[in-house]
Amino acid sequence: MDWHEGSAAPRALKRGDLVVEQIKRWITERNLRPGARLPRELDLLEHFGVSRGSMREALKALEVQGLIRLSTGPGGGATMEAVSLDRTFQFLQNYLFFQDIDVRDIYAVRRLVEPALAAEAVPHLSSEDFAAMDRTIDCCEPIAGASCLMHQRTEDLHFHDILADACPNPFLRFHCKLINALLQTMVVGSVHASPEAYQQLGQAAVRYHRRILAAARRQDAALVSRLMLAHIVDTERHLDAVQAALRSRLLLDSEMKRQRRRPRHDEG
């Protein structure tokens, strides 16, 4: 292969990285799904013809990527895992740590995808979903106090997560839940913003959530989509009022131990 002047040659893969690629091809060929057990270590060594050190390095790399779970002791070994949203979000936030983005960039994408997701979710919302959305609205009623504001923000985004979980389109669901996670961990407000500005943000969210929920109960997907767009535009305006900005940081493993919600569709 000819390389253009100034371009770098591809990095030579380490032995462990090559084994990772071999195992991934092997998993793909067999279409292994979450819960499937990989062969014992001795069988893997024999099949791939590598040293114990290279195999253990490869398996650890696959575990870090979220593809397998390693366990020790009798009956231990490697088990296939569905890569979690938390793990995917961690990689994304690590990427965004080095990018120059702001709240407007996130909301530009949110305006495009979330109204479509909300409309698709409407026919799939259950009575349990409606009850859960009602509870989040009750929790979002504005109350003074910084700790209450943080709890309200979490419940506000939980309302949107419930809609995302009900959406049958996995690609839309993925994007909206990642946006919600970004907003949860990266958006901070100015210490100089007035309590009244935060109160108005919370009050506006509650008003829109009540209208969205009422339209969803009537199975009016078109209205839900329009209300969601108006809600996002209005929320961005309120974030301007509280001088919200992104806090660029790396996400820690200890911060990914959030409570798991009921899986939907292909997430189970």
Automatic annotation (TrEMBL):
* Keywords, in A-Z order: DNA-binding, Transcription, Transcription regulation
- Keyword DNA-binding recorded: yes
| PROSITE patterns to which the protein is assigned, alphabetical | HTH_GNTR (PS50949)
Residues of the HTH gntR-type domain: 13-83
UniProt-listed Gene3D superfamilies: GntR ligand-binding domain-like (1.20.120.530), Winged helix-like DNA-binding domain superfamily/Winged helix DNA-binding domain (1.10.10.10)
Q: Which domain of life is it from?
A: Bacteria
Protein name, entry field? FCD domain-containing protein
